[in-house]
Every structure is written in C-alpha cells, then in structure tokens.
Amino acid sequence: LFASENSVCLTAVRKKKVLGFMLGSIESKKSSIYWFMVKERYRKTGIGKELLKLFMEVSKKRGAEKFFIAVPQSNDESFNFFTGNEFFEAETYKVLHKNINEEQAEE
C-alpha cells in the first residue's frame, strides 16, 4: 500500500509479480479511481474486488463519501465490474476532448 496525502496506490502481488493495481485520489469527500487493472488471466478471481474493497475502506477512513470512476463506453467488462459492485451510472460530468493532430495540421 502506497499512500500520500491525497493519493492511493494499491497493488496485488504474488511471488514478486504484480497481478493488479489501483491508483486513485481522495479530495473534498470524493474518491476517484484513475487507473485500475488486473492482468487478464487473473480476472474473475477476486483480485479486483479485493482491491476495490480496500480502496473504499482507505477512502472512507479519509472522509470520502462518494466514489467516482469514468469507464469508456466500449469497455463492457469494466462497466459490468463496477455496476456489479453497486456503482451506478451518473450523468453529472461532460466529457471533453481535443484532437491535437488537427491543431498541428493548421500550422
């Protein structure tokens, strides 16, 4: 477990090999997950669920009341994992992006 004032990084390790990790932050009573990965061959073994459980426990101890993760629409596996762990879809954010290549083409 690595944790600084606002960030948390959890890893699942077996025999010196990283099987999965979760990186997030806790600020203003909101806990956000930025990166979350479990190696494909270890998915559906409980590693992801255990990382999420530990992240939520750490977050609650630091005063978080809400949890947030953005999942790409095309990532059904992640969407199903989080909704299966009582997360729900909320439309409180707008996603913005900018294509850097278009800007370079104008120069």
The best one-word shape is globular
The SS-based structural class is alpha+beta
Radius of gyration: 16 Å
Which percent range describes the beta-strand content? 25-35%
- Estimate the mean pLDDT confidence: 87
Count every helix, treating DSSP H or I runs of 4 or more residues as helices: 3
The largest beta-sheet arranges its strands as: 1-2-3-4-5
What's the SSE pattern? EEEEHEHH
Task: Indicate the multimeric state.
Answer: single chain
Sketch the major β-sheet: 5 strands, mixed
The overall strand count is 5
N-end to C-end Cα span: 46 Å
**Parts with pLDDT < 50 across at least 5 consecutive residues:** none
Helix content: 25-40%
